[in-house]
Amino acid sequence: MVQVETKISSLFINGEWHDADSGQTDAVTNPATLQTITEVAYGGEFEAKRAIDAAKTAFTEWSEMSPRKRSRIMYKAHQLMLDDVDRLAEILTTEQGKPLKEAKGEIKGAANFLLWYAEEANRIYGEWIPSSQRRKRILVVPQPVGVVGAITPWNFPSSMITRKIGPALAAGCTVLLKPAPETPLSAIEIVKIFEKAGLPEGVLNLVTGDAKAIGEAMLSSRDVRLITFTGSTEVGKYLMRESADHVKKLSLELGGHAPIIVFEDADLDVAAKLTLGSKYRNAGQTCICANRVYVHESVREKFSQKLIEHVEALKVGDGSDPSTDIGPLINEQALEKVENHLNDAVSQGAEVVYGCSKWNGELDGHFYSPTVVTNVTDDMAVMNEETFGPLLPLQTFTDEDEAIAQANNTDYGLAAYIFSENLDRSLRVMERLEYGIVGVNDVFPATAEAPFGGIKQSGIGKEGGHHGIDEFVEQKYVSIGMH
Ligand code: ADP
């Protein structure tokens, strides 16, 4: 496995690596073995403020640099990332737990965001609007919002960063990045890549450590114009409330509670295989993974049989073992949440048809066996709250309207999926689903070229696609009088 130093100076401020001023450090743990991998700096408000100052100073030069030049640096970072995919994937698996094959996929996807936004940097067009008055001209000039605070989660420690800093840097913004405390190593690697690619000092700054204090430094700064956040709805709401004083822009990717609807006219082999992919990828720790499955009662038996055949074949273990399909959950609380959802469901009459229980393998990590339950009802926790683990509840429905109503019966609105071979029905149902993303016979919608984002309490704004740039750009209206 990859070698990591026992202590890392993980604060990158104005082009230099530092320890925390207090000398405090924070352990990074391998969730498969519970061994400490390394210690990183535990920074706080002091370091975050310095980083914001550095980003503010760097903004003028970076925002005025030609897009082509910015693009070249980003393209180089993309290339450096791809050149190092194996090592970066090993680091990711060590700190996050996901199987190596998934980690490699994530690094490639992360690099792809840099490539996409290296290209988009050159295409941030303005407008010339025909005026209603003969001696006036109207221009719309896109300009970078300014200093950006980026707060990222542990479930995709690499791609959630590039999906934010890619468009930010392309637009000409400068950044203070605060990664999740569970997975700082992937963030450090990305920053090193940009350092190597020739990013000017102060453009991208990294502060690991006290989430609340770093967040407060962002919130209380009049220089931080946008906070881009991916994480829980609870923290998203907190950031929204606290942003009011400075009327900051916000881009929020929050929780989800994705339904999968399997209609009676679905290709059941495809539906079962992809349901498995959606639910058990990253051990169920993705915000767009299926939280609940509604299957038409006429195909319930066939579908669950096929699904369970796939689930049985899954191998739980250390993600660094190439044969592993499901790695550990990130921590003890994550494990407890899955257990609570299962116990709550079973106590109210749900039937476990496969799996159940902590994995009793040889490793100490937070493992949970993939589990399928039926006889679930709408009021069970698993049908309402984000489980973020490998527990899959199956419920039946009898008609289309009922399935749509059940799917929409949530405060979340990130992703929903339908399986049907009927095009009319697929379009009809897609239009009625109150979600930012709908997968039709597909459960892997996240990609650099498409706008990813939720509605309702799942968030505000889009990441990915040319739409992703919009978050980081202000449209300046210029009215020109000709005298
Ligand atoms: P999860 O429960 O999945 O870890 P969180 O929303 O708690 O989701 O975390 C997502 C990111 O938000 C992480 O980087 C975390 O450190 C950060 N975070 C958590 N609380 C705060 C806060 N009060 N202010 C700023 N960032 C926070």
TrEMBL record:
Q: Where are the transmembrane segments?
A: none
The record's section on Gene3D superfamilies has:
Aldehyde Dehydrogenase, Chain A, domain 1, Aldehyde Dehydrogenase, Chain A, domain 2
Family annotation (CDD domains): ALDH_F5_SSADH_GabD
* PROSITE patterns per the UniProt record, alphabetical: ALDEHYDE_DEHYDR_CYS
What's the domain of life for this entry?
Bacteria
Q: Which GO terms describe its molecular function?
A: succinate-semialdehyde dehydrogenase (NAD+) activity
Which UniProt keywords are given for this protein, alphabetically ordered?
Answer: Oxidoreductase
SUPFAM superfamilies xref list: ALDH-like
**One GO term (biological process):** gamma-aminobutyric acid catabolic process
Ranges for domain Aldehyde dehydrogenase come to 17-478
Q: Where is the active site?
A: 253, 287
User: What family is it from?
Assistant: Belongs to the aldehyde dehydrogenase family.
Task: Name the PANTHER family on file.
Answer: SUCCINATE-SEMIALDEHYDE DEHYDROGENASE, MITOCHONDRIAL (PTHR43353:SF5)
What name does the UniProt record give this protein? Aldehyde dehydrogenase
